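From the pipeline queue, job 12 of 40. The input is one protein chain; the requested action is below.

Action: predict structure.
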Amino acid sequence: MIELTAQPFELHNTMTSYWNDFPGIPAELEKVSSLIQTRTASHNPIIADGLASLFNGEGKLLRPGILLLAAGFGKKQEKHYKLAACLEMLHVATLIHDDIIDDSPLRRGKPTVHSRFGKHDAVLIGDYLLSQCFLLAAEYTNVDNARGLAKVIAHICSMEIEQNSDRFRVNSSFRRYRRKIMGKSALLFSLSCHVGAHEAGVSKPVTEKLRRIGYSIGMAFQIIDDILDYVGEEGLVRKSLYNDLKTGLVTLPLICALENEPSGDLKTKYFSGDFFSVDNTDSMIELIKKAGGIEGAKQYAASYTNRALLEITRLPSGTARDSLEKLTAQLLLRKY
């Protein structure tokens, strides 16, 4: 099982180097990346320029990679690369929309689409990407998987609306937070595993295990993402830090800090009833750390990771299982 005292491994800044230790995956992801470049090409210079900055080889391509790992438990086919591209396009479309909602200035170390082209055009670029995603899904998957994709998008939209309505308001238990990040992240990881396995002809019991593993990986991934907004290095994270707190998003470090210290300095200085304001970000973050918010959130991330690792031991042995186990463990310790 994963211990939180483990030393972080070294990560790199490009897709290919991130996957270098996973046999066969870098070459397969190059196919996915090339396919994305082809499918997102546009004669419209704003669309072409906006998407080029997001599909430049610097993303980790985690969801496509996980789909391909899951497919490795069965017979991998050419359509898996198309479906992997489909999921990455969906993911990036949600990032464009997220950045608009949060008014984030940076994504992957570069100006966000809306900061370059304005929010109106950024929304349309995101919508264009979604349309390409659905075209690929319609061509290469069955009705059930396409329906699953539509359900994920509906959950993402629903949870974003709920999250937006809760800004600067702490009425969040872990259960409420869990529901939000399930819609934002975990369902897409889960779908990646399910689609990869199902389309490779993997048995139903193994496919179901992979679906649950994807869910747990996605939950841990989003929790670590929320932690890095507090304690990450901007040069590695490649986006502005403290943006969640500044824009009133209630994530797990804050929830854990308030649970540990319900009437301490954090509550006294920054809260009026269920609402909070941020007049000194550095001071508020120090109080969250002092109250154990970061460590508490890490424990939740470790719990989901260990749940995934336990389920992985029940999968058929081989390269696919070894690679999935390795990826799951290292994602907990990532720095970006």
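Job complete. Residues 4-14 have pLDDT under 50 and may be disordered.
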